Structure formats: structure tokens, C-alpha cells
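Hey,
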Amino acid sequence: MDYRPYMKRIESALETIKAADKIQESPWQEIVVKELNQISKDCAKELQTETGQTGNKGDYQLGLDEWPPTRILSLLLTLSAWVGWIMHEKHGSSEEKPFSSRVSLQMIQEAFGYGVHLSVHKQIP
């Protein structure tokens, strides 16, 4: 999947609200969150096209853009690409910097692993 168009859309939304230094909640909700929602839909549709998969609900099928787990996955994929880029731009990749691209990736992997751990041990969040 080519994440660049989604990353550009994230950048554009941030530029629209001039969020380089600080988030203003109202524009953040009205512009950035709406765009992230649309990105998650578009990315999920692309994921469905690439994989040929749908959300199997037993007696019916959902498009991946209609199924919450794949909508959230699509959002995470696009945000991960953007966060990887911006954290490397701002903090490099050194493990000594708390928000470097490498440390940020480790945090994402640990969070994902935590969710898997809960599932393996039949625990509910």
C-alpha cells in the first residue's frame, strides 16, 4: 500500500488548522478528526481491494470500511506511517531520544503486544 497520499492528507489537515506548535481543540475536532475518519474509510477500502477480504460476520459480510477492527487498523497503519516520518524528522532514530522513530516504533509494538497478551490470556480490556 502506498501510504504517501494518506500522509499528505494528514499533513494538509494539520496545516489547515496551523497545528505545528499547538492543538486548538475545536479546529482539531472539526478538521483533523474528520479527515482521519475519512482516511480510515479510504484506507480500509484500499486494504479490501488489495487483500480481497471482507469482514465476516457469520451470516453476512461487511466491507472493511464498515467493520470497526479494520477501520481502526487502517487508521493505525496510516498514522504509523506518518508518525514514523515525523518522529524521524524531529528526533532522528537514536535510541537515546525518547521520541525518536526507533523508540516510537518500540512503543507502538509494545502496545500492540499488550493487546495480544490480553487476548492470549482471555482477558478483556
